[in-house]
Each structure stands twice: as C-alpha cells, then as structure tokens.
Amino acid sequence: MDETPKNIVILTGAGISAESGIDTFRDAGGLWEQHRVEDVATPEGFAANPDLVQRFYDARRAAVQTVEPNGAHEALARLDRAWKGELLIVTQNVDDLHERAGAKRVLHMHGELLSALCARCETRHRWSAPLFDRPPCHGCGEQALRPDVVWFGEMPYAMDRIYAALRAADLFASIGTSGAVYPAAGFVRDARELGARTIELNLERSEGSHWFDEARHGPAGQLVPHWVDELLAGADQA
Ligand code: OAD
Q1: β pairing state of 111-118 and 145-149
Q2: Which residues line ligand 1 (CB under 6 A)?
Q3: If you measure from the C-alpha of residue 116 to the centroid of ligand 1, how many angstroms do you get, rounded to a whole number?
Q4: DSSP summary character for residue 88
Q5: Predicted model pTM
Q6: pLDDT per residue over 135-165, tens digit each?
C-alpha cells in the first residue's frame, strides 16, 4: 500500500505564533490569565462593555502588525507552495502570520484581527486601524463595526469546507494548540475515524495527545521545518 500522504489538513493554534512574540491563551502568563474570557470574548461581554472589548482587540490588532512570521510559518508556506496534493491550513489564530510567510491555502476558523465585521449589514472589511472610536462601515455608513473574530457561543467559520477537507485527508497534523476548544479540538478524532494518519507537533502534550498516532514535542520553530523537510523528501521519492 502507498503510505505517502496526498491530502493534508493542518490545524494550527497560538503555539505556532508564540516564537513570533504573540501571547498564547492558556500558557503561564497567557491572555486568559490577563483577561476574563466572558468579558472580552463573548457576545454578552461585548454588549455589556463594548469599549473594553474594542480596546482589547485594538491592542491585539496593533501588536500583530509589529511582529514577524517565524520559521514554522515559513516552513508551512514552503509546504503549501510545493505540495501537489490537496492541502488546507486551518488556523484558529486571528493573526496573519501564515499569509505573511506566503501561505495561500489558509482558512481562519476563528476570524481575523485585520478584518472588521459590520453588525448591521454583515459586510467584512480589511481593517488595520482601531475600532474604539466607532468609525463608520464603508458599506452602510453605520457605526456598527466589531472585530471579525469568532467569540465563544458563535459558530466558527467555514466548517463545511473544513469537514470536506478532513474527509479527503490522509494526513492530519495539529501544531501549537492545547486541544481545549471545540470544534477544533475534535478534528483529530474526526480525521482518525475518516482514516487519516494523525500527528501532533506541540511544545508539550496537549489535552488530546493520546488521540494522535505520533506526537513530537518541542518548539514549533524547530519541529515544523524538520517535519516539512521529511514530507517533501517522501513526496519526491513517491
Ligand atoms: P492555547 O493557548 O490554548 O494553547 C497553545 C498551545 O501551544 C499549548 O499547548 C502550548 O504548550 C503550545 N505552545 C506554546 N509555545 C509553543 C511553541 N513555541 N511551539 C509549539 N507549541 C507551543 O492556544 P490555542 O490552542 O490556539 O479561541 O487556543 C484555542 C482557542 O482558544 C483560540 O483560538 C482562542 C482561545 O480561546 C477563541 O478566542 C474563540
């Protein structure tokens, strides 16, 4: 039987951007130690205190524009360019570091910091400036823009496309994610049941580590370039 994978789904999380200088959520000192999820990452929190929530995302939007992709983002972009089969990078991250490294086949299931969503007309706009001062929507003119990020209690984006890719995948990789937030945390089980080989690349064992056929632990900036080299070498021999 041909063991060389053809179709790959890669799930990434905050750990892949940690070496670029972006805080993760659940590590020591992470964002969810500094802020209450209910206050800044739920529709109810936004309704209760929109200024607080806009300032939180304004600060993150500004910060993301000061950092650079690292070796792990660059390695995945290299894989994206070279891989002849299907490939989808599903990121839970709201930064744009995959794209800035040059990856094209990227899907942001939790939205993007550099995008604003109009709560009135539902138009999305590329957005790099603050939203705190309530600028008007370029579509309808209403001052109803919110961060285009998925909050707890909201539906992640593009789930149909993600499950279609998981059904077609023969390799599923999870990089830099704690496996604490569903539905992304369930993708490894879905991929396994659908017949894919599964691999975890993470600093430490994630909550779902035991679901993976293989686990490698260490910093993404070291693990991912090596793993991509292996995949591309295997594809050359196939
Ligand atoms: P977490 O902060 O939950 O987990 C980050 C994972 O990355 C941990 O398992 C760390 O061990 C690992 N890690 C840290 N540094 C690393 C490095 N240099 N190399 C490799 N791994 C490293 O972040 P996510 O799993 O992405 O959702 O969190 C998932 C979702 O929870 C986020 O998208 C966000 C959050 O609440 C929403 O806001 C909807």
Answers
A1: antiparallel
A2: 13-15, 18-19, 24-27, 30, 41, 92, 110, 150, 152, 176-178, 180-181, 202-204, 206, 219-220
A3: 23
A4: E
A5: 0.97
A6: 999 999 999 999 999 999 999 999 999 999 9
